[in-house]
């Protein structure tokens, strides 16, 4: 449960990619608790998750099984959400894949696959939602990026390239659609310990090393990203656009 209440989100239609697992599942729950109507997509069936969310929040999300790299299917899922819940007021581009790889092993096929998930789908989701937001007199787009590219991390150069591209895209779209009262911001989490991260990469040594870099000495959980996302979605941030908000416990210190 998030302590803050963003009353203007009640009744708003929110679309979240990857909204049934990891950070996305926490986002779905957070918006449901605010009284929003949530449509979310993911590659795997999520009947159990949908039932759980309804039980815990009293608000049932609309889940559509969809591979976001299939752009026609992505666009159709957004149309389905509009048809069933109303025009989308908030878009959260959350789904990503940070599969580890080295530069010398990257093939053209792998590069295209990585960009299709981590950047291309973001752009076409934004393109599809803009007319809906224009019809509503505005809206909020939140593109998830990462601090990985800011740190110059190795181990996934295709992923960090997409992360950096998300920020450029975010700034350009914020400029282009600001006159329509559409705000476009990026949100850059630090190392959030989802089940996937804990299972695949969070060794005791890696965790200790990362925590040493943080100003705040506590590992991030998916729930730590929710309040910042709600803030960017709500009118509380009505004059914030074209920005990248870092939520990482103070690993990347700017200024």
Automatic annotation (TrEMBL):
<keyword id="KW-0560">Oxidoreductase</keyword>
<comment type="similarity">
    <text>Belongs to the short-chain dehydrogenases/reductases (SDR) family.</text>
</comment>
<dbReference type="Pfam" id="PF13561">
    <property type="entry name" value="adh_short_C2"/>
</dbReference>
<dbReference type="InterPro" id="IPR002347">
    <property type="entry name" value="SDR_fam"/>
</dbReference>
<protein>
    <submittedName>
        <fullName>3-oxoacyl-ACP reductase</fullName>
    </submittedName>
</protein>
<dbReference type="InterPro" id="IPR036291">
    <property type="entry name" value="NAD(P)-bd_dom_sf"/>
</dbReference>
<dbReference type="InterPro" id="IPR057326">
    <property type="entry name" value="KR_dom"/>
</dbReference>
<feature type="domain" description="Ketoreductase">
    <location>
        <begin position="12"/>
        <end position="191"/>
    </location>
</feature>
<dbReference type="GO" id="GO:0016491">
    <property type="term" value="F:oxidoreductase activity"/>
</dbReference>
């Amino acid at each position: 449960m998030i302590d803050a209440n963003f009353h203007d989100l009640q009744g708003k239609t929110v679309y979240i990619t990857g909204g049934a697992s990891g950070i996305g599942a926490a986002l779905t729950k957070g918006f449901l608790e605010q009284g929003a109507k949530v449509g979310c997509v993911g590659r795997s069936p999520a009947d159990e998750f949908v039932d759980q969310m309804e039980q815990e929040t009293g608000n049932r999300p609309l889940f559509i099984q969809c591979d976001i790299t299939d752009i026609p299917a992505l666009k159709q899922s957004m149309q389905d959400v509009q048809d069933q819940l109303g025009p989308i007021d908030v878009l959260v581009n959350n789904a990503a894949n940070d599969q580890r790889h080295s530069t010398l092993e990257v093939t053209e096929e792998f590069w295209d696959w990585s960009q299709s998930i981590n950047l291309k789908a973001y752009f076409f989701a934004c393109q599809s939602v803009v007319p809906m937001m224009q019809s509503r007199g505005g809206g909020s787009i939140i593109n998830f990026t990462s601090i990985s590219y800011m740190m110059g991390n190795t181990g996934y150069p295709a992923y960090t390239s997409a992360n950096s591209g998300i920020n450029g895209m975010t700034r350009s779209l914020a400029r282009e659609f600001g006159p329509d009262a559409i705000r476009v911001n990026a949100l850059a989490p630090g190392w959030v310990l989802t089940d996937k991260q804990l299972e695949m990469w969070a060794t005791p040594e890696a965790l200790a090393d990362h925590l040493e870099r943080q100003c705040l000495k506590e590992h991030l959980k998916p729930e730590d990203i929710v309040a910042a996302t709600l803030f960017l979605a709500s009118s509380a941030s009505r004059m914030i656009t074209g920005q990248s908000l870092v939520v990482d416990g103070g690993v990347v210190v700017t200024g």
